[in-house]
Amino acid sequence: MVDSLKKPNFEEMQPGVKVPAKETILTPRFYTTDFDEMAQMDISVNEDELRAILEEFRADYNRHHFVRDDEFQQSWDHIDGETRRLFVEFLERSCTAEFSGFLLYKELGRRLKDKSPLLAECFNLMSRDEARHAGFLNKALSDFNLSLDLGFLTKSRSYTFFKPKFIFYATYLSEKIGYWRYITIYRHLESHPENRVYPIFRFFENWCQDENRHGDFFDAIMQAQPQFLNDWKAKLWSRFFLLSVFATMYLNDLQRSGFYASLGLDAREYDIHVIRKTNETSAKVFPVILNVDHPDFFRLLDRSAEANQKLAAISESKAPKFVQFFQKLPSIASIGANLVRLYFMKPIEAATTQGKAR
Fold first, then answer.
1. CB-CB contact of 159 with 30 (8 Å)
2. Bridge-based pairing state of the strands 159-161 and 288-289
3. Of all helices (H) and strands (E), which one includes residue 96?
4. What's the DSSP call for residue 62?
5. What's the pTM value of the predicted model, to 2 decimals?
6. Can you tell me whether residue 348 is helix, strand or coil?
7. Other C-beta atoms lying within 10 Å of the C-beta of residue 14
8. How confident is the model at residue 340 (pLDDT cuts 50, 70, 90)?
9. Which whole-number Å values give the CA distances from 279 to 42, 169, 242, 282, 284, in the listed order?
10. Res 14: pLDDT
11. Taking CA 270 as the corner, what is the angle to CA 268 and CA 273, rounded to the nearest 5 degrees?
């Protein structure tokens, strides 16, 4: 009885292979796009910068970084109970997100090979990085006697179609917010090594540099396509993607605050820092950014997080599905209303932000 309480039971497809987490609006997405439109893009206006980024990809600074050392060679049974469940969930979500990037970049590299060799090589080298990340995370899961069947994941997940412009918005933000998430955890644990409960966090400094370079690539792509950034529609889409990425992270992390507590972090303070830094970074490419200093910004996110936790509690209840549906409606309406208010909050012109920085 004690062991069953200490070690949470995970549903397995077969011994040691975890059933993938159920897809929800907050789980990592798998993407596809219009490959022909991507191949026809004219990148000549920013080709020099793209070639410089390609040389960084070719240098492969992390070629020898993702190697498990002796610290991994021990039992991790002392990470147990709710902490173990949240830790496994963190590894699974991170692995799924990295693997999603690998699949998209690999397919782009294959499809663009003959029509845009420069972009194709960049995407292939980014897929190399993402494959390393996903493999390293999946190997970490094996320390908890689990793994993901990535081949099954490829076939079983639904794919979201985005036009190239939206792929660039989404992947740029994904890579940049990934940088700030990893480097923030790394710096915190560098100052508080007693909270580094598992050795994977030692790898986050180099890891986040991969994310940063990938984000710089998408920055350069968008700068080569000024029509993606210079009209009123670009301002609306910038706000939409910034809010979507920030809200998704905030709701997910506050629902899993116990994981961050195990590292000595306050999940809300951590997310606020990451959101502020990612928002500030986005001003380098997006025409507008969100006013995260507005007194209502995080208050409305907090309300949404509370409603999301109510949704999770209802889902875990034993009430019939149709009863759960009606129980969830007020919380769903609350989250929707909060996000609408956040979206229509007056944004900040990025040029103004950059001027202040100078």
1. yes
2. unpaired
3. helix 81-112
4. T
5. 0.92
6. strand
7. 8
8. very high
9. 28, 13, 8, 5, 10
10. 86
11. 110
Strand-pair partners of 349:
288
Residue 161: count other Cβ atoms within 10 Å of its Cβ. 10
> Which helix (H) or strand (E) covers residue 30, if one does?
strand 30-32
Q: What single string gives the DSSP state of each residue in 208-265?
A: HHHHHHHHHHHHHHHHT-GGGTSSHHHHHHHHHHHHHHHHHHHHHHHHTHHHHHHTT-
Query: 356 falls in which pLDDT band (50, 70, 90)?
Result: very low
For residue 130, give Cα distances in angstroms to 96, 141, 159, 211: 10, 17, 18, 9
Q: What is the mean pLDDT of residues 232-252?
A: 96
The string of pLDDT tens digits covering residues 252-296 is 999 999 999 999 999 999 999 999 999 999 999 999 999 999 999
Q: What pLDDT score does 8 carry?
A: 77
- Burial label, 279 (beta-carbon count in 10 A; 0-12, 13-18, 19+): buried
> Under DSSP, is residue 146 helix (H, G, I), strand (E, B) or coil?
coil
CA–CA dist 296, 177 (Å, integer) = 22
Q: 312: part of which helix (H) or strand (E)? A: helix 297-316
Cβ-defined contacts of 237-240 (< 8 Å, 24+): 237/165, 237/166, 237/169, 238/169, 238/282, 238/286, 238/287, 238/288, 238/289, 238/347, 239/288, 239/290, 239/343, 239/347, 240/343
Our measurement of the distance from residue 37's CA atom to the centroid of its chain's CA atoms, rounded to an integer in Å, reads: 25
